[in-house]
């Protein structure tokens, strides 16, 4: 069996947060009697990632994705469990460990705000003690791949979000890490920048064999990149598998949209199908081809309304994810 480059076993992490109280009187009281609540961000997270994989780490807001990334990058110490990445325990041997990983937090910058990008890169070279030759080579390749030539002399605060993200990604790779953690790398980017970032991630994975763990809410990122999905909800891992498996699981689901001449009667019930939308001119139903035959759905509709147009769609990945969240009640 292939040995995992990343192995997490039973990782748990709780945060103690101060209870917020409403009203001035309550707030004043809270100064003396502090009430706390424990948030279990991660309950019992175990998974293995093999070298060269691109793993999409998904889950709704507050599920525990960033907390996991922080544990794996050595920023946070978990309360329990073990984490071995390339043989290191991230929070114990941080100085040596960070030479092997790159981290990008889409919402935060690792670059110095007021200085030109190239100055930040040079600081990182010194911090990571990147050998000159490696630095020069990586800088040249990354500048070409991410089209940075015109950006290197510009202070970070003057860059657009998409330009900054390209620089952030370059910064995380200057020291040739084997593993890249990307926490929402495409957040807020326009379609062109998203495509550029995605194709770059693919390229460094294929050409340099970099293992990538990526969190995102953008399912088209997952579709374009991830060989495998790990889904987390309320601190627990709920799904580990490929997109194909997910597709075959929900592959028999269909949505039918019917447009008809104005109809003011009662909404039409179709046994076995769920009515998602109903108006005097349009209805949308979802059904499963394993239990309901499409021709029957159409026949039942056309028995009640005068159909003008019909379209049938398979579930897209966003819908599959919503259904998975619903199944797990998260
Ligand atoms: N430093 C902290 N102090 C207190 N609570 C925290 C802290 N960091 C995270 N949490 C809590 O832990 C839970 C998991 O947060 P986390 O940021 O890992 O979620 P996420 O899956 O990355 O969410 P999102 O998709 O919204 O970014 C949340 O309930 C959050 O409020």
Automatic annotation (TrEMBL):
Keyword Ribonucleoprotein appears in the UniProt entry: no
Gene3D superfamilies: P-loop containing nucleotide triphosphate hydrolases (3.40.50.300)
PROSITE patterns: ABC_TRANSPORTER_2 (PS50893)
Superkingdom: Bacteria
Domain ABC transporter: 6-259
InterPro entries linked: AAA+_ATPase, ABC_transporter-like_ATP-bd, ABC_transporter_ATP-binding, P-loop_NTPase
Alphabetical keyword list: ATP-binding, Nucleotide-binding, Transport
Molecular function GO labels: ATP binding; ATP hydrolysis activity
Residue runs in coiled coils: none
Keyword Coiled coil on entry: no
Name listed for the protein in its UniProt record: ABC transporter
Species of origin: Paenibacillus agaridevorans
